[in-house]
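Handover notes (outgoing to incoming on-call)

Open items:
1. (Mediterranean fruit fly) hypothetical protein: sequence verified, structure written out, both below. Nothing else pending on this one.
2. Nothing else urgent.
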Amino acid sequence: MHRIPLILPSPSAYWDTNMPEYRLLRNTLNAENIEETEKFLSILDNEAEEFLISYNSTAEERLKCAIQLLQSVNFVQGLRLLNNNIMRASKDSKSYLQALRHRGSWLLKQFELEAGINDFTMFLYLNEQNQDYEELCEVHGLITISSYVIRHYEMTKKHLHAYNKYKAKLPEEFFKKRFEIIDLNIRSFEHEFDNFDHVIPKCDISWQDLPYQGFNINKNIEQMSSACCYVEYLHKNNLVSRVVSNVDLPKASIVLLEKPLSINMNVSLVQCEFCLYHSNNIYTCLECRYKTYCSLKCIENDKDMHQYECPAYKNLLLHILDARDLYRLFVKLSIHLNNSTFASKVFRNVTSAAEVLDIIERNSETEEDYQMNSFMGILRDRPNYSKLHRMQYSTLVATAFRLSLFIESKTNIVDIFFQKLQIPKAEKNCINRCHIDASSLQLTFKQF
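(Mediterranean fruit fly) hypothetical protein structure tokens:
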């Protein structure tokens, strides 16, 4: 959270924790706070841009040094330099592509086959216009062998076809000298794919991460929707919600939640922020170069949601405010309001943000879908803020304020998700700030 405090209206020296969010918002909107936040965002923009420019200017030297170190006893240092290039170098730079290729080759030598395949897959994805047949033949050949070893036969057949295509474009003498070992390995199993349609398809679950007997008695992991049910009951005049099992689950068995409302994760440098897979070979978003992923598949699957997060990651704001979870939750909430709530006729005649917020609060109890009801609960339920220390409360208010100003000035989220409301843009921004404040207060209260 951002610990630089906002300027408070006199005569109070502290925030009133009993103040409604709407009044809290109005008290933060003064010229000093807005000017300070705008300078803060401008500094972040400049620093983030200068850092990437500075890094790209030395990326080629880092790559050369890394290749030399990989062949020595200091290979760990060389691998670290390759990882840095893969995470930070520009996606269009040669140093980024070559770092992927060299790390992929090194990983295959260490028999980390799936990790090596991921590097080569990313290399091919970013290098579609590459006419270097030698590089392409090598990469497709290595993927063919590796995917065959781990029994990804569909992938093997696909890259075997590409390997033979580029193999035919290379001089025969050069090919024999350069790719003799690769070709010998491929020819040892190539005949198996003459009748590939009869091969039993392989399960998509990673062979390295699945125990022989599965996680439980068998390899089937119950999804939460089929293994559990949600119940509500009165206890001492309070409505209590719980999740209970509706099937016979062995003790300590694993149950997966398909779509968690939010995920809080503080080790992004070694963990995929999309699927939470722990990996020593991480990738970053090709645009912002900061959000971390474990594979190209996760990058593609997260593209629709991350397009709204990308500017905030690139600006470094989410890292400094420690607000990645909060920001994604706000985007999900905005999408839900746009798709389900703002389409209602009741919003056609409203003229102010106060009316919109009042309607949302009154209608939030009618949500039938469990996950959507959880979203609306963020706006409906008010924690007991008096249990927070004054510094904690001040910190979360400052975080919400600065994040909401960033959304207004640096993104088009308000224009996209609040377009159905027939109210002035200033009023839409007011709703945006209240939602950010509510989400921030809820999440931070739970953390404390």
